[in-house]
Design goal:
This protein is mainly alpha-helical. The chain is 68% helix and 0% strand.
Length: 267
Amino acid sequence: MATFDHHHDISETEFRIMSSTSNEALTALDKVKDEPNILEKYVQPCVAELLGCILFFSIGCLSVLVNPQGAGPLLPAVAHGLALAVVISVLGNISGGHFNPAVTLGVVISGGLTPILLIPYWVCQLSGGMLGALLAKGLADDLSFVNRSGAACMVDSETSLAKAVGVEIVFSFFLVFAVVMGAVDERSRTSLAPYSIGFTVITGIIAGGSISGSCLNPARALDPAVVANYWDYHWVYWVGPVSGAILVSFIYRFLLAARTHRLFLKQ
């Protein structure tokens, strides 16, 4: 009886082709596994912004409420800056660490965040800030809360509104510039960005706190204002930070960005 050998020798070329195809398939599978899902792309960043704002706002507002009368802006400045640096350090890789509607607007226009997340981020930032302001109210004594208008941002009575708006624009520009260049731009991005941003807040409050309060954050202005029902010149804290953020994003997109984010002269 005849026997047949069904064994087929694979040539070296065929083996390389099969190995290459197999490796490409495994690589593609790994990429699919590494792709963030809906929870990681949309839900977790919003939760991070919510939690970060609760912590940041509660500490910031409380530092104003417990600051001794006539002590100046040093304590609130350091508390705001260090709290912001910490929450950016621990949550920045999830959401970008904005915790500020003006920063989110500037980052979106600069191309560092998908516009789909703009409104959800704002909702989470305002909601987290409200919870933080309420938490600060619960921790402080009632007399301090009343005397300091619930830590709401206030324009000095002897300061012109033009100067107050100018302070908010200049230091908001400085803050958003630190975020965009330190955390968004791929060429200047640095691991020290959380501390650079925190120090920027400290600098802004120390230098401009006696003029406008150096709020630099519409949510930081709105939420204590709602809790304490204090609305004097509230519009200053929206016009200033939003204007500063838009100026930074335009300068970045037209002049400073790499080719991937620059709007013209890409060749």
